[in-house]
Amino acid sequence: MAQAASGKIRLQLQLKLLMSEPISKILSETVAAPFATTLPETLPGLDVGDGLRRATGRPDRYLPLLESFRRTYRHCLAELSALLAAGDRDATLAFVHKLKGTAGNIGAREVFAVCVALEKDIRAQRDTTALQQRFEQSWTQLLSSLQALATSAGCHDPDAAESAR
User: How crowded is the C-beta side of 77, counted as CA atoms within 13 Å?
Assistant: First the structure.
């Protein structure tokens, strides 16, 4: 029992250390070589450190989250535009809220911030044209970074397969 408690304390201390260290140090000291080469310290539109901390400092957990996010939301701009054009306030709010939470979890801070503002303006029934443009810019930047990361990690691109048919 004492060994289990000691192991738990050691794990907690290691996690605290990982959370406080710079990304470069985490990558160089605790990450297997394949992940260190596929996960850059910074990516436009993505706070890698924040996302990595949320994945307990483990790129082997963070990279699949990024890939899942990229695949799930790859048509996000078209979906959001369609929802806004349809005027379905509840469906639009649900979509933006879900995207906001997921973007925040992976460290996509600008997309998260725009989603927060979009939620407020949709609820208040204000014009969202400027926010939609800001969202498109931040989304395009994030998606480009995620696509580059996926390509460098050798992930299959579902859009490329669709367009090849």
Answer: 13
Average pLDDT over residues 127-140: 95
Alpha helices in 47-128 (DSSP H): 48-54, 59-72, 76-86, 89-106, 109-123
Q: How many CA atoms lie within 13 A of 31 on its CB side?
A: 25
Topology of domain 1-159 in CATH is Four Helix Bundle (Hemerythrin (Met), subunit A) (1.20.120)
pLDDT of residue 45: 94
Percent of the chain with pLDDT over 70: 68
The distance from CA 113 to its chain's CA centroid, rounded to whole angstroms, is 13
CA pair distance 62, 105, nearest whole angstrom: 10
What are the tens digits of pLDDT across the range 96-105?
Answer: 999 999 999 9
- The contacts of residue 155 (CB under 8 Å, 6+ apart) are 67
pLDDT band at 155 (very low <50, low <70, confident <90, very high): low
Residue 67 and residue 28 in contact, taking contact as beta carbons nearer than 8 Å: no
